[in-house]
């Protein structure tokens, strides 16, 4: 696994641990779903419900696939295994990415506006500098818009174990992370 992939996964683990107790459990994904839905006031209720459902599915997949010691929570060590077998998470990540991007496109024109992107990514917990750098790396149009599929692909790349130098790496450097989940 690439070092960049390890750093990306470490960062997202720390953010997904929404209640900050050091492990992932159902409550984290409920909190995160509420937080992210609240960050998209222009989005419709179906899109918000789809986002919460995607977070629920994300948690169920983690519990099913990664709870090696069967204690009902996912430790950091258990979580890192998700990038070792990406094919087991592909459908879940794709659904998650689609739900998030849909939430970021409330006018349904297939394009993401920077303020909507910033609001959602801030709600997840990423740092503003990294979010801006990521949006820039997506190559926005002159009107500062990014196509929905570009973001979806960016989310999928984020979880890829063999990718480096991708737009998502800006989130890690922008957040000053890379020292692990306890940073
Ligand atoms: Ca937790
Ligand atoms: Ca466990």
Tell me what the structure shows.
The chain has about 180 residues and is mainly α. The protein has a single domain (about 5-175), classed as Orthogonal Bundle (Recoverin, domain 1). About 60% of the residues lie in helices and about 5% in strands. It has helices spanning about 5-15, 25-40, 45-65, 75-80, 90-105, 115-125, 130-135, 150-160, 170-175; strands at about 110-115, 145. A two-stranded antiparallel ribbon has the order 1-2. Helix 2 runs antiparallel to helix 6 (about 115-125), helix 3 (about 45-65) runs antiparallel to helix 5 (about 90-105) and helix 5 (about 90-105) runs antiparallel to helix 8. The chain is globular and about 50 Å long. GO terms for molecular function: calcium ion binding. This is Calcium-binding protein.
Short précis:
It comes from Streptomyces shenzhenensis. With 183 residues, the protein is mainly alpha-helical.
Distance between the termini: 21 Å
Mean pLDDT: 89
Query: Beta-strand level of the residues, as a percent range?
Result: under 5%
Structural class: mainly alpha
User: Which runs of at least 5 residues are low in confidence (pLDDT < 50)?
Assistant: 175-183
Oligomer: single chain
Number of helices: 9
* Share of residues in helices: 55-70%
Biggest beta-sheet profile: 2 strands, antiparallel
CATH evolutionary superfamily: EF-hand
Order of helices and strands: HHHHHEHHEHH
The first-level CATH class name: Mainly Alpha
- The Cα radius of gyration reads 15 Å
Report the principal-axis shape.
globular
CATH topology: Recoverin, domain 1
The strand order across the widest sheet is 1-2
Bound molecules: calcium ion
């Amino acid at each position: 696994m690439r070092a960049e992939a390890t750093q990306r996964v470490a960062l997202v683990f720390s953010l997904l641990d929404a209640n900050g107790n050091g492990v992932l459990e159902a409550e984290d994904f409920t909190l995160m779903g509420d937080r992210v839905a609240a960050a998209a006031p222009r989005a419709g209720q179906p899109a918000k419900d789809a986002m919460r459902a995607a977070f629920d599915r994300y948690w169920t997949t983690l519990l099913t696939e990664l709870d090696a010691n069967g204690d009902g929570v996912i430790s950091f060590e258990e979580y890192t295994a998700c990038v070792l077998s990406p094919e087991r998470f592909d459908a879940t990540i794709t659904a998650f990415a689609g739900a998030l991007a849909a939430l970021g496109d409330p006018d349904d024109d297939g394009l993401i506006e920077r303020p909507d992107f910033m609001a959602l990514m801030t709600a997840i917990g990423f740092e503003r500098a990294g979010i801006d750098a990521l949006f820039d790396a997506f190559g926005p149009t002159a009107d500062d818009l990014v196509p929905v599929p570009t973001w979806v692909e960016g989310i999928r790349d984020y979880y890829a174990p063999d990718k480096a130098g991708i737009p998502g790496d800006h989130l890690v450097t922008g957040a000053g992370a890379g020292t692990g989940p306890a940073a």
